[in-house]
Amino acid sequence: MTLYGEKPPAADDRPTVQVTAVTWPGDEPDPASAPAPGRPGGRSRRGRLLLAGGLTAALLAAGVGVGAYAYAGDVPRGTIVLGTELGGRSRADAARELRSALERRAATLNAPVKVTVGEKATEVKPADVGLAVDVDATVAAAAKADAHAVSRLVGSRTVDPVVTVDVARLDTVLRGALGKQGREMTLPAIIFTGTTPKPVYPKPSLSLDPPRSAEVVKQGWLSGRPVTVPLVEKAPATSRAEVDTLVEELAKPAVAAPVTLTTDKGSVTIPPTAIARSLRFSADEAGKLTPRVDVKRLRSALGDTLAKIEVEPKDAGLTIAGGKPKVVPGRAGQQVDSAALARDLLAVLPRTDGRTVTGRLTAAQPELTEAKLAELGIKERVSTFTTKFPGGLSSPRSQNIIQAAKDVDGTIVKPGETFSLNGHTGERGYDQGYQDAPVIVDGKLVPGVGGGVSQFTTTLFNASYYAGMEDVEHKPHSYWFDRYPAVIESTIFWPDLDFKFRNTSPHGVLIDTSYTANTITVSMWSTKIYDSVKTEYGPRRNITKPQTIHLEPGPKCIESNGIDGFTQDAFRVIRKDGKVIKREKFSWTYQAEPKYVCGPAPS
Question: pTM surpassing 0.70?
Answer without folding.
Answer: no
